[in-house]
Amino acid sequence: MADKSQSDVPLYLNRELSWVEFNQRVLNEAMDPSVPLLERVKFLAITSSNLDEFFEVRVAGLKQQLESGVWQREPDGYTPPELFKALSQRIHRFVDDQYRCWNEMLRPALAERGIRLLEVKDLTKSDLAFLERFYRRHARPVLTPMGIDPTHPFPLVLNKSLNLIVRLAVKGPDKRRQVRLAIVQVPQNLPRLLQLPREDGRRDFILQSNVIGLFLGDLFAGSEILGHWLFRVTRNSELYIDEEDVSNLLEAVAEELHRRRRGDAVRLAVQHNCPPDIRRELLHHLNLTEDDLYLINGPMNPVRLMALLEGDHSPELRDPPFTPRVAPPLRGKNDLYEVIRRQDVLVHHPYESFQSVVDFLQQAAEDPQVLAIKQTLYRTGGDPRIVGALAQAVRNGKQVTAVVELKARFDEANNIEWARRLEESGVHVVYGLVGYKIHAKVTLVVRNETEGIRRYLHLSTGNYNPTTARIYTDIGFFTCREDFAEDATNFFNLLTGVCQYIPMKKLVLAPFDLHSRVVELIQRETHNARRGLPARIIAKMNALVDKEVIDALYAASQAGVEVDLIVRGICCLRPGVPGVSERIRVRSIVDRFLEHSRIFYFENACQPEVYLSSADWMPRNFYKRIEIMWPVEDGNLRERIIQEILALPLRDNVKASILLADGLYARAPRRPHDALHRSQMELIQLAAEADKQASAPSRVKTKYPKMQVRLRPDQP
């Protein structure tokens, strides 16, 4: 790899700052007037939810590092104090952009369309009467005003709860006027957005916090309300569990979840007009500094704006309706096993329906020839069909094993609930390997057939979650190839038994050999390029962080390998550095669906290899998780992935952003007469065309666009 001196900047982009740029790209969708209005509100809400998680985990971890006092300068050029300062400045700019988007763009546009978020000054007498009834019946019984004085210390403010801090004038025992503070928590179990009754079709809303503020005099009878201001605290929410020192992992995770709400504070958001002395008081009690303070001019938690999307109103302000198609090989087939015996099947979600995966499990649960089902579960969601099929299989006398990952971040409570239900139904529930998260997505069905035992396998780049499968792009893969099935059997034995890892024939596993295999594949392309053989790499993933992999890609670029990376989120590789990464191009696509599939293409001297995986190229995926990568050996499926699922994003010039050498992103360049290419819309159209062809077998086979191999970065 080229010496670092060839560049005036570090060769690696900082992970945390790269993440903020990803969230900025999501916010850009909220700012884009070509996006339907209610979808823009959704994107704004997503940025707020993303930012909460970022503070709860990444900023919290950085603060702990600062407190330790032990650090060094990282390869990205930052020490922890420098990074915290840079991150604070960047996120403050981002939050300013969020509320500029809301106040100057979305709120006025919604009002023009008859959807208004009102303030107290906008209310009519009938509105006030309606809200007083709501307050008396629903809010007042659950509100608990908490005074702050020598006998009432500052209360524990729960993570992400919304609160009012109130300044009061009260009469003391000597009847002299005293100024006090009090806190009122806004109830989390009541609607944060209240819709006001209207007869003319308008949709008017008010924030619940404004309603409580309106009636504070009732809560503090006999006191004078001098002012009230909203604030919200974000706390460290990482789970700290020593798995080797607990007797019951499920109970340990459940107990730790209760502590999450009381972790150290990492961020304070306050209403923008809150007086400086009150802000200082809050910072003092929360042990935070001015760098941790965010002044908010608008809804304190924009996630709650998702309530504006509820119901079937305003179709003209939404994306056009979309119904996933059944994958053509499976369309109209009652016996999925018969199809899989004839051919491997690839299902591209959400363009092709996740119902095929549900059918695969439900058919296995009911089929008398099925002897056993084994499945990993990372994020199950609230849909009961997956776990319901496993429970039904037990009732039908089959051996059923579920490997449930209890520590799936921010989905722990949901997984605990499903794990308990599965255990109660008789499923053998396993919590995986100590020290590792089970992130691989695998289902194995063992069936007794005339020719003997046959094993059917489903592998996926995404979770067994029917809800997210409608909004995440992922690839599911069905096969009954014997070598794949044998590897899957050994995989489950590794998770459930006391077994040593043995390298597999087809499946590549983390933390055992996935990292070394990825580096070897990159190095093979490097070697081929040096020998003058065709060499190219295309990799699609959610995040690229691992330094050794980045170094291998730099070396490949210097050897002449053309590298195209489609990285939705964090990317620590710096493209376009002279002498280092001139042949590497990085793009990110943020659109209607969340790009989630992991696909890796290697030219291999005109003998292309394509791999699918559950893993991003990050140290945690390589070393701290159980992950799977597998080859696509069916030539037709491999060609489809190359010419469709990779080619279309590479030519996207509508929703793609290009990573520049300085770590910032710019929209993909488009010349005045260039045709518009929006990859997700083209994939929707291809799925519709394939669906039509499945209904008319005599029609000509779908022609997928040929992938354009660009030899120079400046080629369109």
Q: Summed up, what is this model?
A:
This protein has 716 residues and is an alpha/beta fold.
- By secondary-structure content and strand pairing, the structural class works out as alpha/beta
Task: Give the helix proportion (percent range).
Answer: 25-40%
Q: How many H/I helices? A: 18
CATH fold category name of the largest domain: polyphosphate kinase like
How many structural domains can be distinguished in the coordinates? 3
CATH class of the largest domain: Alpha Beta
What does this structure look like?
By secondary structure, the chain is of the alpha/beta class. The protein folds into 3 domains: 32-317, Polyphosphate kinase middle domain (polyphosphate kinase like, 2-Layer Sandwich); 328-506, Endonuclease, Chain A; 522-695, Endonuclease Chain A (Endonuclease, Chain A, 2-Layer Sandwich). Helices cover 36% and strands 22% of the residues. It is built from 18 helices and 27 strands. The strands form 4 sheets. Strands 14, 18, 19, 20, 21, 23, 24, 25, 26 and 27 form a 10-stranded mixed beta sheet that branches. Strands 10, 11, 12, 13, 15, 16, 17 and 22 form an 8-stranded mixed beta sheet that branches. It has a 6-stranded mixed beta sheet with strand order 2-4-3-7-8-9, sandwiched between helices. Helix 15 (547-559) links the parallel strand 19 (536-541) and strand 20. Helix 1 packs antiparallel against helix 2 (37-68), helix 14 packs parallel to helix 15 (547-559) and helix 17 (635-651) packs antiparallel against helix 18 (679-695). The protein starts with 14 loop residues before the first helix and ends in a 21-residue tail after the last helix. 40% of the residues are buried.
